[in-house]
Amino acid sequence: MPNRLAHATSPYLLQHADNPVDWWQWEPAAFEEARRRDVPVFLSVGYSSCHWCHVLASESFEDEATAAYMNEHFVSVKVDREERPDVDSVYMEAVQAATGQGGWPMSVFMTPDGEPFYFGTYFPPAPRHGLPSFRQVLEGVHSAWTSRREEVAEVAEKITRDLAGQQLDLGAADGPPGDAELAQALLGISREYDPESGWLGGGDTKFPPSMVIEFLLRHHARTESDGALEMAGGLGEAMARSSLFDQLGGGFHRYVLRQRPHGPLVPHFEKMLYDNALLCRVYAHLWRATGSELARRVALETADFMVRELRTGEGGFASALDADSDDGSGRHVEGAYYVWTPEQLEQALGREDAEVAARCFGVTQEGTFEEGASVLQLPQQEGVFDAERIASVRERLLGKRAERPAPGRDDKVVAAWNGLAIAALAETGAYFDRPDLVEAAIGAADLLVRLHLDEHARLVRTSKDGRAGAHAGVLEDYADVAEGFLALASATGEGVWLEFAGFLLDHVLAQFTDPGSGALYDTAADAEKLIRRPQDPTDNATPSGWSAAAGALLSYAAHTGAEPHRTAAERALGVVKALGPRAPRFVGWGLAVAEALLDGPREVAVVGPADDPATRTLHRTALLGTAPGAVVAVGTPGSDEFPLLADRPLVGGGPAAYVCRNFTCDAPTTDADRLRTALSG
Questions:
Q1: How confident is the model at residue 509 (pLDDT cuts 50, 70, 90)?
Q2: What is the pLDDT of residue 166?
Q3: Which of 474, 472, 457 is nearest to 543 (CA)?
C-alpha cells in the first residue's frame, strides 16, 4: 500500500512511496500531527542519486519491524534536498555544528516546533565502525523524549537559538573587490594548483572547479595574466583527460577520488545537470580564449550529452543520472554502466582494436576500478593514435555500452539548474554554429516560463512530467534562470528573454535583498519561516544564489542602464571582497563577476538586418569576445527589444557594432577584426 509520498513530484520521494514507513512530506500537517501525538519528528533528507541514501532505505526504511517502530514513536518526514534546499541548508548547519561533519543521507530528530536536538547521517542496521545501529538511535531518542523531556527541550532551544543568532560576518566588505583583492585571490589559487597533475588541492577527492576556471579566464582577459590562463588550461585538460569525463558518451561525473595511495583517480559515477551545464559553458569559454581543440570537443560532447540523455519530453532537463546500475547479473553496482575489462573490449572490437583501445583509454588487466574493471581515461595525447581509428572505436564502444542496463534518471526539472543549462547551450550553440543546441535552450526556457513562472514573476522550483511542484523557488532559481535568459537574449537577439530576466531580478530586489545592508537571503521574505532564514554567499557545486544574483543583476544593468540593479550587484559583491583573498575557491563565481564589474562590463550593440551575413558575422564576433561579462544585443536599427539598440543607426548603409564601457563609447565599426580587437580584454 503506497504511503503519502505517492503524490509527490520528486523522484526521490517517489522512490520511498512503497516503504512501510508512514512518511510525510515537509508540510505543516506533519508537525501538527507530531504535536497531537506528542512525539518527535524524524527528518530524513537525501536525493535520488545518493548511494548511501539508497543503502539506508534498503536496510532500514524497507524493514517492516524498523518501520513499525518509526510509525509508533515518530512522525517521519522525507525531504528531497534538491527540491527543498532551504530545509536542507538550515538543518545541515545544525548537523555540521554538532558533529563536525555533514552529508547525505541526513538524519535529524526534532521537536514538533522544528527545533533539532539529535543528528546524524547514515546509520547501519547493526552497530559497526563506531556507529550505533539505526534501531538503537531510534530507541535512544524515544527514551530521551519520554523520560528526559526537559533535557531534550533545553538542547533543542539552545541549538535553535545559536542557529538563529548566527549573523554573516562580512568583515571589511565596504564595497566590491578591486585589483588588490583579485590579485590576492589569484595568488591563493596558484598556491593550491599543482602544475604537474593539473588539479587543485592536495586531497584525494577532486571536484570540478568550473567557477574558478571562469574567474581565471576572465582575469587573464582583463589583465593578460599568463599564469591565470595556464592554470585555466591545465585544469581543463586534467579534467578532460581523466575519468571524470565520460570518454565515450561525453559529460562529466560528479567527482573523482583516489581509492588507494598512488592509485588512479576514479569517479563517483553520478552525472548531475548542474555540473555538466557549468562545465559545458566553461569549456566553450576556454576554447574561446585559447582555440584548444580539446576544449571544443569537450564542450560539444557535453552539450550533446545533456540534450541526448537529460532532456525531458517537456523540453526541460532532468536533474541527474544515478551512479549505480544493473551489472547484467541482477546486482545494482556503482559504475557498472561505464567500466570495461580487456575481455569486454575484445568482445566489442576484436583483438587488434581492443589492444589500441586499451592503450588509448588506460584499460589494464588488473583494472583501475574494482573487480578487474577499468574506467576509461585519456592519459596520452590524441596524436599518438590514429584519429579515425579512435573515432571508430569510440562509436562502437558507445553502441555496445548502450546495450547495458542504463542508470536511473531523476526526471525532476529544477529551475536553477535548467537556467545554467540554458546559458551553456545558448552560448555553445552560438559559438560553434549549432542551432540545434540553441533550440534546446529555447525549449527549456519556454518550459520554465510556461510551467515554473506565474503571473507575478514568482518561480516554482521544480516540476516533473509537466506538473509543477509545490515549493517556491529560492534565490539560486531566480538568479540562475535570469542568467540563462540573459545569455539566451544575447545569443538569439530575442528581447523577450531580457524582459523575463528583468521580472525575475526585480523580484530578487524586492524579496531576497536586505534593504539596509544589501545582503542577500536564500529564501524570499514571504517564504515559509524556518528556524533560521538561510543565507550562504559561498559557492558549492553551483554558484551560490548570492553570487549568481550579483552576476545577473550586473548583466541586466549593463543591458538596460538600470542603476538599482547595478548598485545591488556592487553591494552584493562586498562579501567577495571579504572572502576572495582568504578562500578564493569558495567564491569563484563571485570573483568572476567582480572581474566583469572592473571591466565595465562592456556593452555591445550590433545593428543590421537579421538576414544580412555581415550582421551575423558581427554578432558572432561579439559573442566570441573575451572581455569579462560583456553583454551583447543584436537587432535592426530602431528596434525597441533591447535598450542598447536605441539611437544606433547603420553605418554607411551597412551593419555596424557599437562598443561602450563606463559611459564611454568607441566609434562604431563595420569591421569584424576591429570589433574582435575591441573585445579582446
A1: very high
A2: 61
A3: 474
d(CA 293, CA 179) in angstroms, rounded, equals 32
CA atoms of 204 and 265, how far apart (whole Å) = 8
| DSSP per position, 44-63 | EEE-TT-HHHHHHIIIIIT-
Q: Whole-angstrom Cα distance, residue 475 to residue 462? A: 14
Between the CA atoms of 565, 274, 398 and 47, what dihedral angle is there, to the nearest 10 degrees? -160
Phi-psi region of 363 (alpha: psi -120 to 50; beta: other; left: phi over 0): beta
Neighbours of 184 (CB within 10 A): 14
Rounded alpha-carbon distances, angstroms, from residue 625 to 440, 599, 606: 23, 13, 13
d(CA 622, CA 674): 11
Do the bridges between strand 75-80 and strand 41-46 make them parallel or antiparallel, or are there none, so unpaired? Answer: parallel
Between CA 631 and CA 487 the distance in angstroms is 8
| Strand-pair category, 631-635 with 324-326 | unpaired
Max Cα-Cα span within the chain: 88
Q: Provide DSSP, 379-390.
A: -S-GGGS-HHHH
**Each residue's pLDDT tens digit, 397-454:** 999 999 999 999 999 999 999 999 999 999 999 999 999 999 999 999 999 999 999 8
Q: Nearest-CA neighbor of 475 among 514, 426, 421? A: 514
**Cα–Cα dist 528/104, whole Å:** 23
Rounded-to-integer distance, Cα 215 and Cα 656, Å: 30
Strand, helix or coil for residue 108: strand
How far apart are alpha carbons 318 and 335 in whole angstroms? 20
pTM score, whole prediction: 0.93
The CA–CA distances, whole Å, from 138 to 55, 118, 170, 286 equal 18, 11, 40, 51
Q: Do 642 and 495 form a contact (C-beta atoms < 8 A)?
A: yes
Grid coordinates belonging to 578 = 571579504
Give 557-562 contacts, CB < 8 A, sequence gap 24+: 558/600, 558/601, 558/602, 558/603, 558/629, 558/631, 559/486, 559/489, 559/498, 559/603, 559/631, 559/633, 559/642, 559/643, 559/644, 560/498, 560/502, 560/643, 561/643, 562/502
Work out the number of other CB atoms within 10 angstroms of the CB of residue 585.
19
Residue by residue, DSSP assigns 141-184 as HHHHHHH-HHHHHHHHHHHHHHHHH-----TT-SS---HHHHHH
Q: How far is CA 450 from the centre of its chain?
A: 22
Residue 389, all three cell numbers: 581509428
Q: Name residues whose C-beta falls within 8 Å of residue 119's C-beta, 6 or more positions apart in sequence.
A: 94, 95, 98, 99, 106, 107, 108, 109
Report helix, strand or coil for 193.
Answer: strand
pLDDT tens digit string along 597-653?
999 999 999 999 999 999 999 999 999 999 999 999 999 998 889 999 999 999 999
C-alpha span between 590 and 595 (Å, rounded) = 9
- Eight-state DSSP code of residue 643: G
